[in-house]
Amino acid sequence: MKDVPANTPTAELLLKASQVKALEKPSSRDYRSVFRYMEKNGGQLFEEEMSWIYEKEDLVTLRPHRENAWLDGLLERILSLCRSRVVRYVFCSPVRVIRETRARTDDPAIHYYDRRRISKCVTMVITLLILVLLIVPIWLLYHSAVHGTITKTTDTIVLILAFTLIFSAALSAFTKAKRHEIVAASAG
Fold it and tell me: Are 91 and 113 in contact (CB under 8 A)?
């Protein structure tokens, strides 16, 4: 195969194609959100010229994926079901930002949640879960040793093995840790 000179239109086209290919695909949640918005607010344009929305594999996202995107989405769905003032106060943007986002829509039922606040809440949930998974087996072993409820070494090993497996599953579900990182965390 011949080398393509660097300053030719073919080289530029190949470079642009590789840059487009490097862009990330939208998550299913983001795709559904855009699809629903276009379906609801696209009107006649959606019916006539919006066939591109059905070509999900050709779409790209301009924002990077978050590590815990599925957990963020779950929290946002739970927040949308809990329409209390406290939830809006804790998770919505400050007042000046609310005024800017209110200019986007007239629908009072739509609330824009602050991504940083949701991310902090998700981080706290994951930290609490990992903390519980590390402390509960120690407490159970201590409690059973003091009260003499575990009489065999096999029971102790099964308890430790069960919580190690749960800890590893939580790490793989809630983080983008690689296999060797999960093994190292479980062994530690």
Answer: yes
In angstroms, the first-to-last Cα distance of the chain is 51
Q: What is the sign, positive or negative, of the torsion defined by CA atoms of 110, 116, 120, 126?
A: positive
Asked if residue 60 lies in contact with residue 29, where contact means CB atoms within 8 angstroms, the answer is no
Give the model confidence (pLDDT) of 65-102 as tens digits: 665 567 877 888 888 788 777 887 788 776 655 566 55
d(CA 9, CA 37): 38
Q: How far apart are CA 14 and CA 6, in angstroms?
A: 10
Question: In this structure, what DSSP letter does residue 63 have?
Answer: S
Whole-angstrom Cα distance, residue 88 to residue 64?
Answer: 26
Distance CA 84, CA 88 (A): 6
Q: What's the Cα-to-Cα distance from 104 to each of 27, 29, 92, 97, rounded to whole Å?
A: 23, 21, 15, 11
DSSP conformational letter for 92: B
**What is the pTM (predicted TM-score) of this model?**
0.62
Residue type at position 64: P
Question: Residue 68: phi, psi to the nearest 5?
Answer: -110, 40
The per-residue pLDDT for 69 is 66
Task: Please tell me what DSSP assigns to residue 101.
Answer: H
